[in-house]
Amino acid sequence: MRLMKFLVVSMVVSAPMSGAAFAADDADRPRERIECVPGKKFAKLVKKIGELGPEKRDTIDPAPNFTIKPTDGGGMPGRFFARTGTNEINFEISEEGRVLEFLEKFPRDKKSEFCSEDPSREGMLKSEKAFEFSMEFNVEFRNDSGSYSMAELKDGLKDGKSVIKKIVPGPVALLIPKMTHVLVQFDEADALFGFQAFKNDALVGDAAFERAGLDYLLSYEGLEAMGADELRISGGAHKIFPSLSLEKLKKHDMIREEEDD
Length: 261
Hints:
The protein is 21% helix and 31% strand. It has 261 residues and is of the alpha+beta class.
């Protein structure tokens, strides 16, 4: 399922690494079969997310989207793995280049390394760009059933802000605004969608929404004003995210206008 490069998180947490990330400082030297970079930043980030209490992750899933893409026309390396001392943990890479179970597997040890075993590029100069790396976070609701209680939405908006504040650097965390809207992203761009408010299983009415580029925004306060205790979304597979208002999304240029690759 397509993942969204999410809002505030993509703006302040997205951490693309150098295309020659495994080149280290000796860029004019040939690559070896195994190249590693320090994993301190990864370990620190994984640890911070792990410190979130279960009450902050029951509604929201702070899933890191760590991707690797070859940029030299070649294929993926034989393997990527984390190494701490003599202990090695292999990562599975999806066809789209996503590192699977990164959060669960990467060691919390600051002395760890992130490594590539790549015989096909052995002997190439380290300065030659071979891969592109990026890490973003999709702070999304775990539930994607189409039926959402108001209590669940309220909890998700609150926890979404808490999760983002935990991830971003200290000074930036102070600037994270309140999440007031629910952003809906359908898998199919031409989905025949519907947003309906319910109270005690009885239809209250159609919920007002705003277009945000390819996506849709619903105000939590607007649903609350309708007296709803549940939001139901039709239109097929979708994800929902804690969000800022449309005005703030526009202000920070965070509206998705084109399909993700």
